[in-house]
Amino acid sequence: MPELPEVETIVRGLNQAIIGRKIKSIDILVDKLFIGNKNSVINSKIIEVKRLGKTILIYFENNYLLHIHLKMTGQLIFVNKNQQFKIKNLKLKIPPTIKIVGGGHPDKKYDQPLPHKYTHIIIKFTDESTLFYNDLRKFGWMKILDSRIKNLESRFGIDALSEKLNSNYLSSKLSKRNITTKQALLDQSIISGIGNIYSDEILFCARILPDKKVGKLKPSEINNIVNFIPIVLNKSIDLGGTSRSDYLKIDGSRGNYLKYAYVYGRENEKCRVCNTKIKRIKIGQRSSHFCTNCQK
Ligand SMILES: [Zn+2]
């Protein structure tokens, strides 16, 4: 599952690639992955691409939008026939005159000419460039929505990088809940965009044990969580996201965040701050990595 930094990286790539373009046709090869009337967005200019939590919003001039969730294994690849093809660390057999932008889950099975058997939606633009949606497991989706709907954000919880995410908001959402702090960070109806990797990293920086019940959090600890969420996520965006979570950057290269992770994926390795061995436990169904010395 991509987390916020990986989706943000893809959205920035799409903003460079598809603004101002118009869709000529949409080929839907697997019906269940596309919801709504595709004709709503044909021939209307794309004006903006935004991220909401872990989802992608493509806005059209005619007040429709295309809402995309890549889920576990989705991948968006933009190919512009007129530009130079540049891709690192990924051996795609594509003619060298084609440019690729986009990103998502990489897999050896995807390393073949596009479209291939895992390509389920093909969006062709009027200038002959193409956006391919590939998905090994077919859990992702695209939905046509009216861009004027008001409750889109409330359906997804406040975005982890939204200014509305402050201590008052988080305290009110956590009051009377009997869950661990790790579970609270993963709950997309509370904060949208944080997954397993960044919840571990945020809790390390905030010096809070992942299994601490939210009812036991002091106001200063809630402040710490709120303060470290943007610090950790923005650092990862700067590094191009993670590679372990298998997300590609715009140019197809892998993100670098995990090289710098404090605790995630570092079981039995030494804490970067105090040298204590990093521990891993399961909370709910999810692995949680932490330092018993640094986190209380
Ligand atoms: Zn430590």
UniProtKB/TrEMBL annotation:
Reactions that this protein is recorded to catalyse: 2'-deoxyribonucleotide-(2'-deoxyribose 5'-phosphate)-2'-deoxyribonucleotide-DNA = a 3'-end 2'-deoxyribonucleotide-(2,3-dehydro-2,3-deoxyribose 5'-phosphate)-DNA + a 5'-end 5'-phospho-2'-deoxyribonucleoside-DNA + H(+); Hydrolysis of DNA containing ring-opened 7-methylguanine residues, releasing 2,6-diamino-4-hydroxy-5-(N-methyl)formamidopyrimidine
Boundaries of each Formamidopyrimidine-DNA glycosylase catalytic domain copy? 2-140
Q: Which GO terms describe its molecular function?
A: 8-oxo-7,8-dihydroguanine DNA N-glycosylase activity; class I DNA-(apurinic or apyrimidinic site) endonuclease activity; damaged DNA binding; zinc ion binding
Q: Tell me, which GO biological process terms does this entry list?
A: base-excision repair
Q: Does the keyword Lyase apply?
A: yes
Domain FPG-type as annotated: residue spans: 262-296
Sorted alphabetically, the keyword list is: DNA damage, DNA repair, DNA-binding, Glycosidase, Hydrolase, Lyase, Metal-binding, Multifunctional enzyme, Zinc, Zinc-finger
Top-level taxon of origin = Bacteria
Which family would the database say this protein is a member of? Answer: Belongs to the FPG family.
Instruction: Tell me the protein's name.
Output: Bifunctional DNA-formamidopyrimidine glycosylase/DNA-(Apurinic or apyrimidinic site) lyase
